[in-house]
Amino acid sequence: MKILLNGYKGRMGQAIVAAAENAGAEIAAKSDVGEPWTREQVAACDAAVDFSFHEATPALAEICAETGTPLVIGTTGHTPEERARIEAAAKKIPVVWAGNYSVGVNVLNWLVGKAAALLDSSFQVEVVEMHHRHKKDAPSGTAAKLISLVENARGLDASAERHGRVGLVGERSRDEIGVHSLRGGSVVGDHTVIFAGEGERVELTHKAESRAIFANGAVHAAGWVVGKAPGIYGMEAVLGLDA
Ligand code: NAD
């Protein structure tokens, strides 16, 4: 299959190039800052894969919608306006949109949803993530997903989130979800969800050791998305975890 890769010069872009080669897929077109994609390139590919910057995704989604090219989005940190433009494009084409393409994290998601439902609010939730010092957005897309799974399981919304604490913040409420983003070094991506009860604690952790896990998942998703009905699919659908 032919893939257009947006953000090919980046850390993930390079990992996708290697993963595509291993999977026998062809990176038929590459784009990045100063080397924009063309409509002809998008139209000539079986799927587009975006691991670039949040501002770049909506225009790619819109050209994919025009040319009927399926899209895999790995980029994170989109604003509500950018998300709305991508969602509008996904009415015309199939889009896989996941904050994390690794199998392990998708199983972590499932476990966190179960734990949040089984443990009541006497088990208070804190989400801690750590990434390399170059990461530009916080919290990570993976952490955002974990937070939304806890909110859904407990009937909460974003107002429950407490992003960092400093000063005289007072006692934490039972429903508060603490979110902490650590940055430094070369960490590929660690996520822990802590359920802290009276006298006991459940901690669910995933540690990514290599970008290959995301790249392999994204290339797999690119193969999967071709021929699907328009709409937005998560990695659960690609991996059959939602069956
Ligand atoms: P990076 O900074 O190493 O690479 C980003 C690349 O995108 C760079 O080459 C940059 O020049 C390019 N770029 C920036 N603006 C662009 C534009 N307007 N058009 C085209 N290209 C543009 O970052 P990275 O570590 O490779 O991560 C890229 C994105 O993927 C981030 O949003 C990151 O959070 C996300 N990510 C997602 C997953 C996942 O599994 N979903 C995993 C890792 C990283």
UniProtKB/TrEMBL annotation:
<feature type="binding site">
    <location>
        <position position="30"/>
    </location>
    <ligand>
        <name>NADP(+)</name>
    </ligand>
</feature>
<feature type="domain" description="Dihydrodipicolinate reductase N-terminal">
    <location>
        <begin position="1"/>
        <end position="101"/>
    </location>
</feature>
<feature type="binding site">
    <location>
        <begin position="74"/>
        <end position="76"/>
    </location>
    <ligand>
        <name>NAD(+)</name>
    </ligand>
</feature>
<comment type="similarity">
    <text>Belongs to the DapB family.</text>
</comment>
<comment type="function">
    <text>Catalyzes the conversion of 4-hydroxy-tetrahydrodipicolinate (HTPA) to tetrahydrodipicolinate.</text>
</comment>
<dbReference type="InterPro" id="IPR022663">
    <property type="entry name" value="DapB_C"/>
</dbReference>
<dbReference type="InterPro" id="IPR000846">
    <property type="entry name" value="DapB_N"/>
</dbReference>
<keyword id="KW-0560">Oxidoreductase</keyword>
<dbReference type="GO" id="GO:0009089">
    <property type="term" value="P:lysine biosynthetic process via diaminopimelate"/>
</dbReference>
<dbReference type="GO" id="GO:0016726">
    <property type="term" value="F:oxidoreductase activity, acting on CH or CH2 groups, NAD or NADP as acceptor"/>
</dbReference>
<dbReference type="GO" id="GO:0051287">
    <property type="term" value="F:NAD binding"/>
</dbReference>
<dbReference type="InterPro" id="IPR022664">
    <property type="entry name" value="DapB_N_CS"/>
</dbReference>
<keyword id="KW-0963">Cytoplasm</keyword>
<feature type="domain" description="Dihydrodipicolinate reductase C-terminal">
    <location>
        <begin position="104"/>
        <end position="239"/>
    </location>
</feature>
<feature type="active site" description="Proton donor">
    <location>
        <position position="135"/>
    </location>
</feature>
<dbReference type="Pfam" id="PF01113">
    <property type="entry name" value="DapB_N"/>
</dbReference>
<protein>
    <recommendedName>
        <fullName>4-hydroxy-tetrahydrodipicolinate reductase</fullName>
        <ecNumber>1.17.1.8</ecNumber>
    </recommendedName>
</protein>
<keyword id="KW-0457">Lysine biosynthesis</keyword>
<dbReference type="GO" id="GO:0050661">
    <property type="term" value="F:NADP binding"/>
</dbReference>
<feature type="binding site">
    <location>
        <begin position="141"/>
        <end position="142"/>
    </location>
    <ligand>
        <name>(S)-2,3,4,5-tetrahydrodipicolinate</name>
    </ligand>
</feature>
<dbReference type="InterPro" id="IPR023940">
    <property type="entry name" value="DHDPR_bac"/>
</dbReference>
<keyword id="KW-0521">NADP</keyword>
<dbReference type="GO" id="GO:0008839">
    <property type="term" value="F:4-hydroxy-tetrahydrodipicolinate reductase"/>
</dbReference>
<feature type="active site" description="Proton donor/acceptor">
    <location>
        <position position="131"/>
    </location>
</feature>
<feature type="binding site">
    <location>
        <begin position="7"/>
        <end position="12"/>
    </location>
    <ligand>
        <name>NAD(+)</name>
    </ligand>
</feature>
<feature type="binding site">
    <location>
        <position position="132"/>
    </location>
    <ligand>
        <name>(S)-2,3,4,5-tetrahydrodipicolinate</name>
    </ligand>
</feature>
<dbReference type="GO" id="GO:0019877">
    <property type="term" value="P:diaminopimelate biosynthetic process"/>
</dbReference>
<keyword id="KW-0220">Diaminopimelate biosynthesis</keyword>
<feature type="binding site">
    <location>
        <begin position="98"/>
        <end position="101"/>
    </location>
    <ligand>
        <name>NAD(+)</name>
    </ligand>
</feature>
<comment type="subunit">
    <text>Homotetramer.</text>
</comment>
<dbReference type="GO" id="GO:0005737">
    <property type="term" value="C:cytoplasm"/>
</dbReference>
<dbReference type="InterPro" id="IPR036291">
    <property type="entry name" value="NAD(P)-bd_dom_sf"/>
</dbReference>
<keyword id="KW-0028">Amino-acid biosynthesis</keyword>
<comment type="pathway">
    <text>Amino-acid biosynthesis; L-lysine biosynthesis via DAP pathway; (S)-tetrahydrodipicolinate from L-aspartate: step 4/4.</text>
</comment>
<keyword id="KW-0520">NAD</keyword>
<dbReference type="Pfam" id="PF05173">
    <property type="entry name" value="DapB_C"/>
</dbReference>
